[in-house]
Design brief:
This protein has nine helices and 18 strands. The protein is α/β, with parallel strands linked by helices and about 475 residues long. Helix 4 links the parallel strand 7 and strand 8.
Length: about 475
C-alpha cells in the first residue's frame, strides 16, 4: 500500500459537522494508537504535507508500485453521513451498555472507522486490510491539518491565499484561479445569427427555418430573434460581397459616416450594431449565437472570446454535458494578435459555433442536426438561469489560440507546400516538435519546429487561404467558472 494523494473540496459546513468531525478524529487517533503496529520511528510519515492538497480540479491519481495509472473516479470520500453513522453506532453502544448493567459482564462496543471503497476496483473485489484503511484515514486527517496550518500561516503573513493555489493541474494543463459566486442579470434578449458568411449553409438554413416558425427556439421569458446577417452574400452563396462581415465590427467601421460609398459589409455592420447593440452598451443584446461551418475536421466547436465570461463558461459546460458522449470542444480566442471584431461581439455574451467538416455551399444533414441540438441546449440553459437556477463552480477545458501558421511561400508570395498527410484532418490532435507539418510539391517534408506540443485546428480551412493561414495552434487549458445565479 502506497501513499495516495487526496483532495479537499471546501463546502458549507452542515450544523454540528465540526463537533462530529472532532469526535471522529479523536476516535481515529485513539484507535490508531491502540491497534496499529509501528513501522519505523513514531510519526515518521503519518501527517505528511504531501498527503492532501487543496485543488480546483477533483481528478485523482492512483499510484501503485512500479505502475502509474490514471482513474476517472475517486475513492469514496468522507461525508456527514459517515459521521451520522458513527453517532448511530455510539447510541447503539450506549444502549448495549445500559442493558448490560444488569448482567455480569459489561461489553464495550469498539468504534469502527468508515471503510474506503474504490469503485474502479469493484470488479476485482480486493480486500482492504484494516491497517491499510487506518493508514488512509491517517493520511487524510494529517493532510487536512497540514492544509489548515498553511492557510493559517498565509493569513498571519498577510499573503494572498488564492495565489498559493495550484496553477497547473495533474495533467500539466493551466488552470485559472477560483472565484466567488457571480450575480448576473437575466439573459432576456437573445439573437441567433446565420449567414454571416453566405456560403455556410447550416446556419443559413436553420435561421431561415426559424424565421418562418420560431416555436422551436422560444423559451419562457426569453425573446429569441433569428436573423440573416449578410443577405446579399447568402443570395450569391458567397462568403461575402465586398469584405468579411465577421471582421467588420471595428470601432472605426461602426463610427464611420453612413453612406453608400462604404463597403456593403460595413453598412451591414452599422445596421446590425443599431439593431442589436450598440456594442459595449447596456442596451446591447444579452446573448448572440453566430452560426458557422468549417471545411476543417473540427467537429462541434464553441468559440469563447473572453476567459472572464463566466456566463458563457457555464453555458458551454452545460452544453458539453448535455450532448455527451458526443464531443463539443471550446476554442478560446483571446490572443491579442488574433483578436478580431466579430458580428457577435456586439452582445454582452457572444458565442460562436463552428460545425464541420462541411464544404462551402453544401448542406450535410449530420452537421445541420448537430448545430440544431447545440442551440437547443444553449437556449435551455438560458431559460434555467432566468428561472433562478444556480450553477455551481465548474472547470471547463478549452483550447487557447496561440498563433496563426501560414503556408510556406516563395519570394513572390506563392504557396510552395501543402498540409502534410499526417496532419490533414487531425484537428485538436497533438503536434509535437519534429512532426510532419507541410509537404512541398516535390515531396519534401517540412517539420514543426515549435518549442513544445501544440494542438492545431482550422487545418486547411478553405476560407483562410486568402488570409494566409494554414492552421491555428492552440494549447490546452482548464478554466474555472464561478458559480452564477441571476440577480
Amino acid at each position: 500500500m502506497t501513499r495516495v494523494s487526496s483532495y479537499l473540496n471546501w463546502t458549507t459546513t452542515p450544523p454540528g459537522y465540526v463537533e462530529k468531525a472532532s469526535r471522529y478524529v479523536k476516535s481515529s487517533m485513539r484507535q490508531g494508537r491502540d491497534d496499529e503496529v509501528p513501522e519505523g520511528p513514531a510519526g515518521a510519515d503519518r501527517d505528511s504535507g504531501d498527503s492532501l492538497f487543496i485543488t480546483q480540479k477533483p481528478v485523482p491519481e492512483a499510484v501503485r508500485t512500479g505502475i502509474r495509472t490514471r482513474y476517472s473516479q475517486w475513492a469514496k470520500p468522507l461525508s456527514p453521513r459517515d459521521f451520522e453513522e458513527s453517532d448511530e453506532n455510539k447510541e447503539s453502544s450506549d444502549s448495549d451498555d445500559g442493558e448490560s448493567q444488569s448482567g455480569k459482564v459489561q461489553r464495550r462496543k469498539k468504534n469502527v472507522l468508515p471503510k474506503f471503497s474504490f469503485p474502479f476496483l469493484e470488479e476485482k473485489k480486493p480486500e482492504l486490510l484494516p491497517v491499510h484503511n487506518k493508514r488512509l484515514h491517517s493520511y487524510l486527517v494529517g493532510g487536512f491539518f497540514e492544509c489548515v496550518r498553511l492557510l493559517r500561516q498565509g493569513c498571519q503573513t498577510k499573503k494572498d491565499v488564492e495565489s498559493s493555489l495550484p496553477t497547473v493541474d495533474m495533467d500539466g494543463e493551466h488552470i485559472s484561479p477560483l472565484s466567488d459566486i457571480a450575480s448576473l442579470e437575466e439573459a432576456r434578449r437573445v439573437a441567433i445569427f446565420g449567414g454571416t458568411h453566405g456560403n455556410e449553409m447550416s446556419g443559413v438554413t436553420l435561421v431561415n427555418l426559424w424565421v418562418k416558425n420560431g416555436a422551436e427556439i422560444q423559451r419562457k421569458g426569453v425573446e429569441t430573434k433569428p436573423f440573416i446577417t449578410n443577405p446579399k452574400a447568402v443570395e450569391k452563396c458567397a462568403r461575402y460581397v465586398d469584405t468579411d462581415l465577421n471582421r467588420a465590427f471595428t470601432p472605426e467601421n461602426l463610427s464611420a459616416p453612413r453612406g453608400d460609398n462604404q463597403p456593403y459589409e460595413v453598412q451591414r455592420a452599422q445596421e446590425i450594431n443599431r439593431i442589436f447593440g450598440p456594442k459595449g452598451s447596456p442596451d446591447a443584446y444579452d446573448v448572440i449565437f453566430d452560426l458557422h461551418n468549417t471545411t476543417s475536421n473540427m467537429g462541434c466547436t464553441l468559440i469563447l472570446e473572453s476567459s472572464k465570461d463566466h456566463f458563457n463558461l457555464q453555458m458551454m459546460n452545460y452544453i458539453k454535458k448535455a450532448i455527451a458522449p458526443s464531443s463539443c470542444l471550446v476554442l478560446l480566442n483571446e490572443h491579442p494578435l488574433l483578436k478580431y471584431s466579430t458580428s457577435r461581439s456586439i452582445a454582452k455574451h457572444p458565442v460562436g459555433l463552428e460545425v464541420g467538416p462541411q464544404p462551402q455551399g453544401v448542406l450535410r444533414s449530420n452537421i445541420f442536426e448537430a448545430m440544431r441540438v447545440i442551440l437547443k441546449h444553449a437556449l435551455d440553459f438560458i431559460e434555467l438561469f432566468n428561472e433562478g437556477m444556480e450553477f455551481p463552480s465548474c472547470t471547463v477545458k478549452v483550447f487557447r489560440v496561440l498563433e496563426r501558421i501560414d503556408y510556406p511561400r516563395d519570394a513572390n508570395g506563392n504557396i510552395i507546400a501543402m498540409v502534410h498527410p499526417n496532419l490533414q484532418d487531425c484537428d485538436w490532435e497533438p503536434l509535437n516538435p519534429g512532426d510532419p507539418m507541410f509537404q512541398t510539391f516535390d515531396g519534401k517534408t517540412i517539420r514543426f519546429q515549435g518549442s513544445g506540443t501544440v494542438y492545431p485546428t482550422f487545418i486547411n480551412e478553405a476560407a483562410y487561404y486568402e488570409k494566409q493561414q494554414a492552421f491555428v495552434t492552440t494549447r490546452r487549458e482548464s478554466l474555472v467558472a464561478s458559480s452564477i445565479r441571476k440577480v
